[in-house]
Each structure stands twice: as structure tokens, then as C-alpha cells.
User: Which sequence fits this backbone?
């Protein structure tokens, strides 16, 4: 397959991804950029898709988001208790639970400049040409 054809296929999948997965997020855009907990939920929706069947990832993501919805803000989350809550909610994969704990800790500890909003941080970094670093930190670091 030629390079031009490969790029066309990648572009097609990118367009399909935007239509299927990101279009729904536009309705939540204000919440995602203004509420660190909504931003975390959005990013979890992307981070759970990591090489396994999508159906499994979607189930674990939804169970995780059900636990997170019990909190009013990112700072209300008790990290010491969250892993047990996720396990009780049937998020059986310890790597998924650890990923959520680390995302929350990262947002609260390292993203003060961005109001602890992981989405805003990622958007600024990607616009500045650091998409590879964002990908590595958020999605490949676990």
C-alpha cells in the first residue's frame, strides 16, 4: 500500500473516530473544560480503550464512571478508599483501578496550573506539539 493510500486510510479512521466518539463530547464541552471531575471522566473514557475488546473496556469504564459520579469534585475523592470502591463495583482489572488512581493523583498534584483539569492540560500540550508526551504519560504509562 502506498504512503498516500495509508494516510488516506488513517484520515478516514480519524474522521470516523471524531464522528462516533468525540461528537457526543461536544455537548459536554463546557463541563469538560470547566469541571476537573468531568474532564477526568472524559479522559477515562479514552484511557480504558487499551488493546482489549471494546465491549470489555466500555463495561469497566462505565462501572468506574458510576463510582466517580458519587463525588461532587475531584478533590472529594478519597484515593485511599477508591480502589476498594472500584473493586466492589466490579472493575476487576487492577491495572484499570491503578490507572484511575494515578490519573486523579496526577491531576490533583501536578496540574494546579490548569485547575487540576487533565483535559485542559492535554489540550494545551497537544496544541504545543507534545502529543507524543501526552500519549506516553496518560495512555502508555501504565
Assistant:
Amino acid at each position: 500500500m502506498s504512503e498516500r493510500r495509508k494516510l488516506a486510510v488513517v484520515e478516514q479512521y480519524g474522521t470516523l473516530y471524531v464522528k462516533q466518539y468525540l461528537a457526543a463530547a461536544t455537548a459536554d464541552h463546557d463541563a469538560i473544560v470547566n469541571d476537573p471531575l468531568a474532564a477526568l471522566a472524559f479522559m477515562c473514557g479514552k484511557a480504558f480503550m487499551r488493546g482489549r475488546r471494546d465491549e470489555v473496556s466500555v463495561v469497566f469504564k462505565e462501572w468506574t464512571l458510576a463510582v466517580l459520579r458519587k463525588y461532587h469534585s475531584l478533590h472529594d475523592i478519597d484515593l485511599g478508599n477508591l480502589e476498594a470502591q472500584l473493586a466492589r463495583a466490579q472493575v476487576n482489572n487492577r491495572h484499570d483501578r491503578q490507572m484511575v488512581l494515578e490519573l486523579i493523583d496526577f491531576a490533583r498534584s501536578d496540574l494546579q496550573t490548569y485547575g487540576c483539569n487533565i483535559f485542559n492540560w492535554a489540550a494545551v500540550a497537544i496544541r504545543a506539539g507534545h502529543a507524543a508526551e501526552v500519549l506516553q504519560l496518560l495512555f502508555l504509562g501504565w
In short: The mean pLDDT is 84. The CA atoms of residues 47 and 138 lie 7 Å apart. Residues 35-140 form one domain.
